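Sample intake sheet
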Amino acid sequence: MRRGRRMPLAEIPSPRRISGRCRPGVPSSWTNPPPSRGGGAEMVFPAPFPRETIASYGYRIARLSGLSSLTDLGHLFDLDLRALLEGDRVSVRALARYAGCDAAKLGQGRLDARNPHRLRIGFDPRAMVQSNPRSFRVCPLCLRGMAEGDVATTCLGRTDWLVAANHVCAEHQVRLVQVTPSKPARVHRDLAPIPLLERAQRSPPRPEPATALERHIAGCLDGTLVPSWAGDLQLDVFIHTAEIFGALAMRGAQADWSEISGEERRRQGHIGAQVLVQGVPGIKAFLAEHIGTGRRGNDYRYAFGQAFDPFYFRRALPAYRPVCEVLADYVGETFRFTGQEKVFGIQTRGIAPKTLRALCTHHGIGLKITAQVLKAQYGLRAGASAEVRPELIAELAPALRDLLNAQDAARALGVSIDVLKGLIADGLLLPDYQFNDRMRGFSRETLDRFLAEWCKGARAKRGRGTKIALLELARSRCVRTSRLLLAVRALGVPLLRDARRHGLAGVFVAEADTVALLRQLREQVGA
């Protein structure tokens, strides 16, 4: 054979003919098909449909060969499945030789731009065989026979061996039409009996008879002695709460509830129902008996054990709101909180906290500055968890509620923290509270008075002389801003204000006054 001459399709040896051996249990006609007559390829299987993918045709050939998937076909003939789906020439020729079709036409299906699944490679076709149970794929030609009453001609059951890449009727070789009947009115009149037949196969739902627990609870709640809080409960919430309370009484709060059987849960539900119908006082007495104050002091979560979890995870449901309110009320009356006053998101009336952190949070004041005030004025060294007198914090709260620290005060003035320290050192700004170099307290009124004093100058007009910002002048001459303000006050130099800037950053001085200001600064330094 000359170099470059292509081998005819009929002369391409099959994968098994090369080795000369056949797999056990496989007919020799599968691996060694009979030679074609007339020199052309013999059509052993149907030809591929137009625009059909390799995955679709290979899966169809595998099913017609008695195999379950294209993977089994590739395993039988030692084909690289991924290379076959990607359109490998050798693999496609091997599949075409086995099927007896044209390899060129089979390879065009993957490259056809109109094929919506041409790029879907490397997937298992078995996952694409199942049709959506909520939709119907029918052949428009078969619908004609189905409308005439010939149910045998319908192709609804013939699409199990067609992948989603190419749903084609096996009899008419036309593409199937997918119908999704979301509403009965949208169903085609020819397809209207199909949902009705499916609905007729399922028996209508029957209401389950009331259980013994439901009859018992209904009997307890029947009459005029119904508690007001239990009258708003749903029956399923009532039963669920009764089962939890019964398990709490039988097994305890710290027991394992995972092995409770259905019969035991129903027996425990009768015990819990007797507690729930007694109302809120009876429930609190039951909780005090089985929960108490807990084994670990004030940790009510540990005291409730696993009985607390079902209500915690359902606290957002409105149906569980009455039960959660009763539990939160009991927790507030029995347990002492340390900065936590809510149970299930419900505000409780617990024992008033006396720790410094809880009192500062309650009054809306800072914890650190309050501790410094207690240390400086009263000589009390109190930490965040230390208990202090609530009336003492209530007395200090009005003066400390709106205080700002040094960082917030500098941000309010529009300057840096170093400029603020210079203003304090030269006496231009006096803090309301000063304990050390780090802890200072400024009120809003003090900062407003300072800004009103230095930012009340005339509004600077555009194009009327050259001006320079006061902060920029101080940085360029390496002097304090406070020293520059003292020189402005000594000379009576008018200041200009730019309303677009905040605080001292919007204070300007005319360029003509800078020489006099610098001369005054030299005299101050020399003095």
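Comment: Confidence is low (pLDDT under 50) at residues 4-41, 118-131, 151-165, 184-192. Residues 227-347 form one domain.
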